[in-house]
Design a protein that fits this description.
heterotrimer; A mainly alpha (304); B alpha/beta (520); C mainly alpha (362); A: 304 residues; mainly alpha; two-stranded antiparallel sheet; 13 helices; 1% strand; globular; B: 520 residues; alpha/beta; Rossmann fold; 3 domains; six-stranded mixed beta sheet; 17 helices; cell membrane (chain B); ATP-binding (chain B); P-loop_NTPase (chain B)
């Protein structure tokens, strides 16, 4: 117990909390947008993975991490629209489509990685660069808070800004109104002459942008290389966060933070004598417990 | 009528509509709507009202016929086109997003914008509250749909159409879901709309309402518009006799009923639906072996809820059911089947069959445990033998018992349902609209089967909106209106169509004592 | 006449699904070929190597069969759950923990080898059932999403498994992370010398027959199919639907667990997995290819295994990464699963068939 307290109450724990939360928050916001539009986008995992690799390549060969970020976003959008095309226009089952897509993402990234750097494990051989970390002027000076909040990767700040953006988008714009209608009552949307398909494609594209940024963070912020299957289920955790957060941007972010605590804790505990495997299990276990509690609560609410 | 022609805003001429499954919904429909009137369209279920309205709103395209708007011929090929031409429709099932506010629902699809990107909330509220005020709707447009009453939901639908510039409003059975107070309120609003120059087409089968609010009425029967009259020149009795009528009387000979033991007794069944409307209000009756009791009534008066409760598909809120004098403990579908109740559901596609499975699988779905070898393995040879027999018996048109159900026509699917339900070891048959939307041949087959089983000693409860069926099959008849049994007739043979029509439409109601005869 | 027409349409539908499959495979290979052309100067020889690879030596051909065994188990496991319309992907975790369970039994249980093997496989199955049962029970009781839950559960299974492995089975003297060796004779033997093909191939054959029989020939299987096709209909005909749904997931888990056990006892002499084997997702892939029919799953598994072994050979000879297979597989299954793919053409043919019939051209 003492070790636990020791691990948690350090500024480095909270610093790493923000760091590990970044991809989860971004991906869960992507999941929030699509689930509001009535699509369960399990493909977010694969989108992140492919974007992460695309970002590294673009950064190394086209001109630095900013180009990398741009390409990652673009690739994220393309992947997302592809999933939409297959599941909506070609009418394949959307769950199966996404599972196929994720399988392809894992293998396909390795294929291309090998084609370029002749390595099936990582792209360490490439000098792909890193998106900058930003010291925040005044906050930086504050003793503890400065260490926690300042000097994060720019995408970490972007991710929390995105919570705000997604909130505005969903609740304060006509597009958001249509997206929410597409998910809640597609017939109502069609009855007023708005194209359901178009609305869903737009939602998917936005989700692709967020997934793309999340991927770029993984390979150009979190670390500075791509490694095989580096997302390790973060896209799935994001889906769980979306479910637990009741598909609201704030709720999903809170749930992501909860999972991030478990993950940060697992890194903190790695230096202790705690069995490392159980520590690594924490974020997933937390997700399961969270999901089950959520469904119990939802069921109880319904019964009322 | 000649001098009124100048004011005709909407005219339909010689409309014919045949659905892909072969059902002729509109045979020869002619309708003239005059500017600024409230025009009632009345007819039995299946008379073709809804189809006609779908055509006028661009949701269906007719095979033949012409539509004129303000004297000009128009092609209504999509709801969007109809909306643009100033036609609005309030569907029976609301097209509203529950989690959004009234204002958001009103502006959805034509949202006001601020800075080219943001939703202009203030403008949105202004638009919706202005339109609500203009037409005297006292609603709070900032409330969420999920929190408001059905009446307000309907008002939202009307406002949605008005905001989009509707001059002609089609209301599809608007009062079916409303309480009496809400209905009164709606009428007030409709009169106001009329005053402001709107034209309203009002679909209903409630005579008193038509008498109260409408200017003219068009009566439909079996896909044909029978007559259009001024409401003040007609009477409920006249309308009712014109809309309720049999087309071809197929006579099925049947022997007099041999009333047997008491099979099923329902005591004070009550059921309130999700919207909070009481669909069954203390319904009691007794069902005896060897008799067919029909439940007549206009759709939506609680009959389908009754059928679903008697088969375990829905759970009652109050009351009890006794089968052969034993009180039911468990109200699951399984329990009803074990007690010998079989059920032909109205929705044969999503409840009555698994369409991607074979005919054989469908037939034996409820009898799996009776066709086993060593208690585990399906006895396929016995299944095949019986399936063949029943397919022949029920004249299912197919090339093999392994053919998938979704390759069959509606009538043949219903035969498969019947072949499953009516071959079990049963005592009580609950048949809900067993011949709706299917061809005459199949209808006759199923009706004959019902009589056959009644003669063999089964108790049959026939829920039907088809008067032909009620008169042909039933020995006794009850009428449901507004969630209650409002009439009971000991002998259907002595009943006339006119008489039945009055009760179905609530023009007449029997006294409590008369109705109670059914279980006394 | 109508009967003839129905039979005819039915026949055409069957032809059409075959044509669609062939076209899908062709397109998938074509796109993959284009992708390969970007990364190698000799895409033709790479593709050729992919196809002939498995036939180059007996050893390679037997590897195809060895690879198809666990794939088939995974396919059957997912099949039983998909048939009840449960998107439970915990087969993956069941497979992993099943393998570990059988390894522990194989290391420690002082029983005659045959009994050890039977016990190991049986316990592996039970563990698999438990893993797949968790999302099942949460679905049935609280309507949790079995899909998301099972995805998370797989990781939990991996880490718990690794923990147990490190605690009880790890051989400290081993150079790499591996368990103590299995006891003498506790393995599924060797069928053909100089290959690793083991008796698991008979076991999997038994399971194919068993699963097929179960789904199509038993009362439980029939109820399971009914519930999967139309839940409402299932309730209406008086089936205890929650029990059936639960059963499908326990059985699916059992098959996955046994599959893990058979793979472990057939291919290895020590437990040495440190990551999830990926069979859960493979199971989904196989079911799309096999149209959720257990009888076709071994064929699909063989095809997938063939591709993978061919790709390994191609990797050695042509320096094209074997993971291209993942792209080929994904393209094929997406096109096979896409209902609208070639539908316009199909519709045209059917219209012509029915119209021709009306014209009396028999």
């Amino acid at each position: 117990m003492k070790t636990l307290v020791k691990v948690i109450f350090t500024s480095s724990f909270f610093y790493s909390l923000i760091r590990v939360a970044t991809p989860l928050v971004l991906a869960s916001l992507g999941a929030v947008i699509t689930s509001n539009a009535g699509i369960t986008n399990i493909g977010i995992e694969g989108i992140m993975l492919i974007s992460a690799l695309a970002g590294v390549f673009a950064s190394a060969f086209l001109g630095g991490p900013w180009v990398g970020l741009l390409v990652a976003i673009l690739v994220g959008v393309i992947c997302s629209l592809l999933i939409g095309y297959v599941s909506m226009s070609l009418k394949a089952d959307s769950v199966l489509t996404c599972i196929a897509f994720n399988t392809m993402a894992v293998g396909g990234t390795v294929y291309f990685m090998y084609a370029v750097v002749k390595d099936k494990g990582t792209t360490l051989a490439l000098d792909s660069g890193k998106l900058p970390s930003i010291p925040i002027p005044i906050i930086e000076e504050i003793p503890v808070l400065g260490k926690i909040l300042s000097n994060h990767n720019i995408l970490s700040y972007v991710s929390f800004f995105m919570v705000f953006v997604v909130y505005i988008l969903l609740y304060k714009t006509p597009l958001g109104l249509r997206i929410r209608s597409a998910g809640k009552d597609p017939k109502a949307l069609s009855s007023v002459g708005v194209s359901l398909l178009k609305t869903r494609y737009i939602a998917l594209a936005i989700s692709g942008v967020l997934g793309g940024i999340a991927g770029a963070f993984m390979s150009m912020g979190y670390v500075t290389w791509f490694s095989k299957n580096m997302t390790a289920g973060r896209g799935f955790i994001a889906l769980a966060a979306d479910a637990m957060g009741n598909s609201t941007p704030i709720g999903a972010t809170m749930a992501s933070l909860l999972f991030a605590v478990a993950e940060a804790l697992s890194y903190g505990l790695q230096v202790t004598t705690f069995p490392p495997e159980l520590v690594q299990m924490l974020p997933y276990m937390a997700t399961i417990v969270g999901l089950i509690l959520y469904s119990i609560k939802r069921n109880a609410d319904k019964a009322k | 009528m000649g001098d009124m022609n100048s004011k005709v805003v909407l005219k339909a001429e010689g409309i014919v509509k045949v659905y892909p499954n072969g059902v002729v919904a509109n045979k020869d429909v002619n309708l003239e709507i005059v500017a600024g009137e409230i025009h009632a369209l009345i007819g039995e279920n299946g008379a073709g009202k809804s189809t006609l309205m779908k055509i006028l709103f661009g949701m269906e395209q007719p095979e033949k016929g012409k539509i004129y708007l303000n004297g000009q011929e128009v092609t209504l090929d999509s709801p969007k086109k109809a909306i643009n031409l100033g036609i609005g429709m309030v569907h029976q099932h609301f097209m509203l997003v529950e989690s959004l506010t009234i204002a958001e629902n009103i502006v959805l699809g034509k949202e006001p914008k601020k800075n080219g990107f943001f939703l202009d909330r203030r403008e949105m509220l202004k638009i919706s509250s202005e339109v609500a005020e203009k037409y005297n709707f006292s609603i709070n447009v900032e409330e969420k749909i999920e929190n408001v009453s059905v009446g307000v939901k309907q008002e939202t639908e009307i406002l949605k159409a008005l905001v989009r510039g509707a001059k002609i409003l089609i209301l599809d059975e608007p009062t079916a879901v409303l309480t009496p107070q809400e209905t009164k309120n709606l009428f007030e609003e409709l009169r106001n709309l009329k005053k402001q120059g709107h034209t309203i087409i009002f679909i209903s089968h409630k005579l008193n309402e038509i008498m109260e609010i409408c200017d003219r009425v068009t009566i439909m029967r079996h896909g044909v518009t029978v007559e259009t009259k001024e409401v003040k020149d007609t009477s409920p009795a006249e309308i009712s006799s014109k809309m309720v009528g049999r087309d071809v009387v197929l006579h099925i000979d049947k022997l007099p009923a041999k009333k047997g033991e008491l099979c099923l007794e329902a005591k004070d069944l009550c059921y309130t639906n999700k919207l909070g409307k009481m669909m069954l209000d203390h319904v009691s009756f007794k069902l005896y072996a060897g008799e067919i009791v029909s439940v007549a009534g206009v759709e939506g008066n609680g009959q389908s809820e009754l059928a679903e409760i008697l088969s375990g598909m829905k759970e009652k809120n109050e009351g009890e059911i006794l089968i052969e004098n034993k009180r039911m403990q468990d109200y699951s579908p399984k329990a009803f089947r074990e007690k010998g109740v079989v059920y032909i559901p109205e929705d044969r596609m999503s409840v009555g069959s698994a369409e991607r499975m074979s005919i054989r699988d469908n037939i034996f779905a409820c009898k799996v445990d009776q066709y086993l070898k060593k208690n585990v393995f399906l006895d396929e040879s016995r299944m095949e033998k019986d399936a063949k027999k029943w397919i022949e018996d029920f004249q299912v048109l197919c090339f093999s018992s392994k053919q998938k159900v979704n390759m069959l026509s509606g009538g043949n699917i219903q035969k498969v349902v019947a072949a499953r339900e009516l071959t079990e070891d049963f005592k009580i048959i609950i048949a809900e609209q067993p011949t709706r939307g299917i061809d005459a041949g199949t209808s006759e087959l199923i009706r004959r089967k019902l009589i056959e089983f009644r003669d063999a000693g089964a108790a049959v409860l026939l829920i039907s909106a088809d008067l032909n069926e009620v008169f042909e099959l039933s020995d006794k008849c009850v009428v449901m209106w507004n969630g209650k049994i409002n009439a009971y007739f000991e002998d259907t043979a002595e009943l006339t169509e006119e008489e039945l029509g009055y009760y179905m439409l609530g023009v007449k109601n029997q006294s409590k004592e008369e109705v109670e005869k059914i279980w006394r | 006449m109508a009967m003839n027409m129905n039979a005819k349409v039915d026949r055409y539908n069957r032809y059409f699904s075959i044509i669609r499959f062939v076209v899908a495979v062709f397109i998938a290979f074509f796109i993959s070929f284009v992708i390969m052309a970007f990364s190698t100067e000799h895409p033709f020889s790479a593709l050729l190597n992919l196809f002939i690879g498995p036939f180059t030596t007996l050893r390679r051909f037997s590897t195809v069969l060895e690879t198809a065994i666990p794939l088939t188990f995974a396919g059957l496991s997912v099949c039983v759950m998909f048939k009840a319309r449960q998107f439970n992907l915990a087969s993956e975790g069941g497979f992993f923990l099943g393998a570990l369970t059988s390894a522990i039994v194989a290391i420690y249980m002082p029983l005659p080898p045959v009994l050890s093997i039977i016990l190991a496989l049986f316990l592996a199955g039970i563990v698999g059932s438990l893993v797949c049962g968790i999302p099942g029970i949460c679905k049935v009781k609280w309507n949790s999403s079995e899909l998301v839950l099972s995805l998370m559960l797989n990781y939990v299974a991996l880490y718990i498994g690794t923990f147990i492995f490190n605690q009880v089975a790890k051989d400290p003297s081993s150079a790499y992370s591996a368990s103590f060796p299995f006891r003498e004779g506790v393995n599924l033997g060797n069928l053909i010398p100089k290959t690793r093909l083991h008796y698991g191939i008979f076991l999997v054959a038994v399971f194919v027959v068993f699963t097929w029989q179960f789904i199509y020939k038993t009362k439980w299987g029939m109820k399971l199919r009914i519930v999967g096709e139309n839940l409402k209909f299932g309730k209406y005909v008086g089936i205890g639907t929650t029990g059936i749904i639960m059963m499908s997931q326990l059985l699916g888990g059992f098959i996955a667990g046994v599959g893990g056990g058979a793979e472990m006892l057939g291919m290895y002499s020590r437990f040495q997995w440190s990551a999830l084997p990926g069979y859960g997702f493979d199971g989904v892939v196989l079911n799309i290819l096999a149209k959720e029919n257990p009888a076709y799953i071994p064929i699909a598994a063989f095809a997938v295994a063939y591709l993978r072994i061919g790709a390994d050979y191609m990797y050695k000879k042509s320096d094209v990464a074997s993971e291209i297979v993942a792209i080929i597989e994904a393209l094929v299954i997406v096109l096979v699963a896409a209902n609208a793919f070639l539908e316009k053409y199909h519709h045209k043919v059917i219209t012509r068939v029915t119209a021709g019939d009306k014209g009396g051209k028999e």
